[in-house]
């Protein structure tokens, strides 16, 4: 008997390939620390997962986020460019292909860096004036 | 008081004559009058010849004139006279007369006695007393059954002129002997039973054509003419009768329909004419209540029990809505009759799935085709201008009656408090179709309809599922056609399958596909679900080529026999495919059933080939 | 009102909070959109905060949550005590108090880093509740902030704005 396969229709599921992902034996759902939705899902503003709502992998730390979620955080001045999870300065692994949104993210991170540097310089100069308020601010 | 009339009795009634009257012979005179009055019951009544009344002689007249002057004497005389007649009646009135013979008899008797009476010079009062007593006597001989029979035969049919006259004769006779009331009530009863009979004949189980016109016609042409004829002699107010006859007829029709309502509803839409007429006739709140009670009882008996199929219940539910909105467009009755069905449907596990399948099944032979039609109907036409014409809730509306909820799908959906059960079912059903290679275009079109009904936001999962399948066109290689699914957006039960090892060739293709995917989509990877999908293959066996479309596991199992004439054990198959022996046996048995494999022992299988073929 | 953009996150937080697994903390009420919450806080075995005292914390989720921290303050909450049987006609209304603490103003505003510059989206309603509970637990001073009187005179309704007022006034 000869068996000739003409067409094999098959299905697969896609997943973000996270460094911490479990092996093939089981899928561990990892959540974005900002929106608390799985990476394989979307940030609150997107409808379609995957291409439309990519994730970024932290390179300074091990924390990953939906790109749109971390953007929203870093757009806040109060974020000071830190990772929401570990408060280290947030940097990310740049993929081969870049995009407008990624450039955006880069700009934001750079902006925070500049602010930090300026603040450190300024802080030394204005330390005395600022220090007078310290007690009250602690209250 | 059984005093017979005799001259002795009479002479006691008559006052003794005064001296001026001495010339007369009292006893003799009395006897003369009595002789003239007799016989007290006329002879030869039955030979149809009216008894001749001989005019009284002068002597008689003189005697009457002389002795019955005073009213009190007259009354006493009348009483004795009628008593005498009465006892004669007992013996001489012929029993077993036909009604017409009776009428004839009545006329002769009346004539006979009245002629005598005319000469007695009675006062009005005395005369009235006599007439009343006489009528009672005559009436007591009337057989009501015979009268009814007579009228039943003649009253409400076509009247020939002869019978017309006869009828008038009878009516006047009856009226003359004070039987007007009996006549009226007999006629009314007959009219009612005729109407009832007619309606039963015309209307029973006839729901497909309008019948009110013929009922009204029958009343105007058949019942009413006789009616007005009779009433014109009985001096009853005829004009009011026509409308009450119509009311009676309509009530009777409603009464019939109440007993038929469940079957009528279940034969909707052919019963629409009857339903529309029921709408016209159903005016009393008592009848409305009877209608709903009757319907609910029948529905409980016929439908709302474990023996009935869910689809049938939904089917009747839809017809109930459509029918009762005709009977009562405000929806009050519908609201009442549909509640038990709604309550019952909640107990059925398969309602949601049946409704969902019904809405999506465009085959006109589907029992729930109505739902598919309703789904495609434009939403605008369903919205009624409720806001413009506000009226208070009808008085028989239940406390939580909601107006305007008359859309079939809306009503069925509202059985459940949440629409999510439906969304889940749609998602499952479409998901299955998408996996099985269903027509994506068709599914998308249906989804558009569902979105207009349920709202856009609820179908995010399906939108993503459809996009997944649409994009699978991007990954079509040699032999292998892959669809890549966004796993969070498919019903998890669909993606949970036992894994197994696909044939090497296919694994190779999958690996190629995977590296292409990772290359195309940096940062992402794919996981194979080997058991999902379908395989088209050709088997060359005994110099014949056979085509099959099978599950991937069945394909993997048969691939073990490719160019191999040795037997394969269940254990072998299970090990090679990394599946349980049970699963392996099932897949092997599939091919045994297809006559492709043969079972050597309970655990050994071999290709079903002629020996020389290899 | 439409759903909060991060409704799914709020839903998850709500689900875990409503299971009431945090000792001494109880969800008293919330709106349908899960953007306004009132929690009850109890401090057990503490010298300054008697066991029978209940403190009420209002947490309002801002539109930019979770990149922006919620608006949090203690409130005076009137609860009808229906446990007492002797009061069949008169409802006994109990007014809660604002806990006395060197970082809690008498208008309920709280001076806590987590609610200001230390906030990150990794924090949550739960972490706020635990921080405030712990802040009370570790306190040993029965006093208000030193600038309490001047602060409450000029304090904005939204405590989140108070930092700006504070800096503007003093820098």
TrEMBL record, chain A:
<dbReference type="GO" id="GO:0031145">
    <property type="term" value="P:anaphase-promoting complex-dependent catabolic process"/>
</dbReference>
<dbReference type="GO" id="GO:0097602">
    <property type="term" value="F:cullin family protein binding"/>
</dbReference>
<dbReference type="GO" id="GO:0061630">
    <property type="term" value="F:ubiquitin protein ligase activity"/>
</dbReference>
<dbReference type="InterPro" id="IPR051031">
    <property type="entry name" value="RING-box_E3_Ubiquitin_Ligase"/>
</dbReference>
<dbReference type="GO" id="GO:0005680">
    <property type="term" value="C:anaphase-promoting complex"/>
</dbReference>
<dbReference type="GO" id="GO:0051301">
    <property type="term" value="P:cell division"/>
</dbReference>
<keyword id="KW-0862">Zinc</keyword>
<dbReference type="InterPro" id="IPR024991">
    <property type="entry name" value="RING-H2_APC11"/>
</dbReference>
<keyword id="KW-0833">Ubl conjugation pathway</keyword>
<keyword id="KW-0132">Cell division</keyword>
<keyword id="KW-0863">Zinc-finger</keyword>
<dbReference type="GO" id="GO:0016567">
    <property type="term" value="P:protein ubiquitination"/>
</dbReference>
<feature type="domain" description="RING-type">
    <location>
        <begin position="43"/>
        <end position="87"/>
    </location>
</feature>
<dbReference type="Pfam" id="PF12861">
    <property type="entry name" value="zf-ANAPC11"/>
</dbReference>
<keyword id="KW-0498">Mitosis</keyword>
TrEMBL record, chain B:
<dbReference type="Pfam" id="PF26557">
    <property type="entry name" value="Cullin_AB"/>
</dbReference>
<feature type="domain" description="Cullin family profile">
    <location>
        <begin position="412"/>
        <end position="592"/>
    </location>
</feature>
<protein>
    <recommendedName>
        <fullName>Cullin family profile domain-containing protein</fullName>
    </recommendedName>
</protein>
<dbReference type="InterPro" id="IPR059120">
    <property type="entry name" value="Cullin-like_AB"/>
</dbReference>
<dbReference type="GO" id="GO:0005680">
    <property type="term" value="C:anaphase-promoting complex"/>
</dbReference>
<dbReference type="GO" id="GO:0006511">
    <property type="term" value="P:ubiquitin-dependent protein catabolic process"/>
</dbReference>
<dbReference type="GO" id="GO:0007091">
    <property type="term" value="P:metaphase/anaphase transition of mitotic cell cycle"/>
</dbReference>
<dbReference type="GO" id="GO:0070979">
    <property type="term" value="P:protein K11-linked ubiquitination"/>
</dbReference>
<dbReference type="InterPro" id="IPR016158">
    <property type="entry name" value="Cullin_homology"/>
</dbReference>
<dbReference type="GO" id="GO:0031625">
    <property type="term" value="F:ubiquitin protein ligase binding"/>
</dbReference>
<dbReference type="Pfam" id="PF25773">
    <property type="entry name" value="TPR_ANAPC2"/>
</dbReference>
<comment type="similarity">
    <text>Belongs to the cullin family.</text>
</comment>
<dbReference type="InterPro" id="IPR036317">
    <property type="entry name" value="Cullin_homology_sf"/>
</dbReference>
<dbReference type="InterPro" id="IPR057975">
    <property type="entry name" value="TPR_ANAPC2"/>
</dbReference>
<dbReference type="InterPro" id="IPR044554">
    <property type="entry name" value="ANAPC2"/>
</dbReference>
TrEMBL record, chain C:
<dbReference type="GO" id="GO:0005524">
    <property type="term" value="F:ATP binding"/>
</dbReference>
<keyword id="KW-0547">Nucleotide-binding</keyword>
<dbReference type="InterPro" id="IPR000608">
    <property type="entry name" value="UBC"/>
</dbReference>
<dbReference type="InterPro" id="IPR016135">
    <property type="entry name" value="UBQ-conjugating_enzyme/RWD"/>
</dbReference>
<keyword id="KW-0833">Ubl conjugation pathway</keyword>
<protein>
    <recommendedName>
        <fullName>UBC core domain-containing protein</fullName>
    </recommendedName>
</protein>
<dbReference type="InterPro" id="IPR050113">
    <property type="entry name" value="Ub_conjugating_enzyme"/>
</dbReference>
<feature type="domain" description="UBC core">
    <location>
        <begin position="5"/>
        <end position="171"/>
    </location>
</feature>
<keyword id="KW-0067">ATP-binding</keyword>
<dbReference type="Pfam" id="PF00179">
    <property type="entry name" value="UQ_con"/>
</dbReference>
